[in-house]
Amino acid sequence: MSFAIDTQSPFLLYSRQTKGIFIKPEPDGGAGADGDGSAAPGGAGVRKGLTDMEIITSVKGFKDILPQETGKWQYVEEMARKIFTDFGFREIRIPILEKTELFKRGIGEATDIVEKEMYTFLDRGGEYLTLRPEATASVIRAYLEHSIYAADPVVRLFTIGPMFRRERPQKGRYRQFHQINAELLGLDDPRIDAEIILMLIHFLKSVGLADLRLEINSLGCRQCRPAFKESLIGLLQGKEDGLCGDCQRRLTTNPIRVFDCKMEQCGRIIAQAPRLLDFICSTCRDHFERVKGSLNAFELSFEVNTRMVRGLDYYTKTAFEVTTEFLGAQNAIAGGGRYDRLVKDLGGPDIAGVGFAIGFERLISILPAKNEEFLVTPQLFIAALGSQAQKTAFVLGNRLRMMGVRTEMDYTGKSLKGQMKRADRLKSRYTLILGDRELAEKRAELRDMEKGTQETLSLNTLKEAIIKTLRER
Ligand code: AMP
User: Is 381 exposed, middle or buried (0-12, 13-18, 19+ CB in 10 A)?
Assistant: First the structure.
């Protein structure tokens, strides 16, 4: 693959020291400086390049999930697949890159995510693309693009994968993080809101989480929200000077988003704000009462949090969040709600929806199970001594792998002691000792590494004997 560099461009800089080409900050400082000292695309903080000898590390806020951790991830994914399937959901896999317009229209232009946190770039074809900051808009896009609703408008979909938000990284908050998302389209019945919450709580409990707190609220609809907005503006006007810059701007763009503000000065003012619940229309009130009734029928305890608005514009009526005290400051493990206008806003028919997203990293960080419980160790280590035995071991080891036996062996010609040490370190259950002498006598020694016992096996029936021993264990 090749790409052209416009060496005449005023934004290109060639560094002799690091033998690299960097993008020079735009004269006005660019758009991306965010005060955390890191560079934003085209922004002011372009960093010094690495020397050829330096290790290249991962991007700030982007984490590796190491082999010792992936067992937990796979376990959680399997549980999600099982439980969500039991509730009628099917998996959908969607791209991580979408047209920027999708999120602007879906999430709302005047939200923190769209205003400040998206990884957006101008593609070579001249189109603005964005690494998805959330999954709901993409799921709806796919639902519409493939007319999934035509066969049956009631569709239950889930997806698992990475999301990207350029937030300030801290414990429990990353720039690439993973979510498990469930979306239920085509039903506006309040029982469905309760059903999806039930599935969420059942799943979180099934993977071992305890002390979960469920908070719910009603965000009203397009009919009743304007009156609330007006009342909110009434309170905030005259208090602008006490608000942070962002909230002063929100006052004209999207006043409800002041509830997302984490600044203390704004918190004091917002504490006096009217309650959205006091403004909802009779349809929304009835819906909310029936959601609560259904949660009670499931014996799910919950609290009504009238200040919870969630950070995305598309929610209508029910909104919910699951928190746990074990997470510290970033205590929300999952959140979701109803979005009865989103499908239409994205150009589709008038179809209701409700869904949630679980923060995978946060869930993993409080999972009671330990990494070791998911450790996959070899069942057999073949310690081969001598050139003929090594040849036999190479073929035998790979045949056993193809028969489903997790097998490891030595390729370096270590001493028997060295090989046994490695088998021990790898926590192999058995070790097969195979030397040129054993080979000549058509036998091998199988050592039980836990019990310290050993038995002699005939080479003629070696594979069968090993599989039988592993099965009988
Ligand atoms: P949201 O998509 O904002 O409704 O978030 C749903 C869940 O995703 C939250 O409850 C968190 O558990 C998780 N989450 C959101 N943002 C981040 C982030 N930057 N890093 C890690 N987890 C996150």
Answer: buried
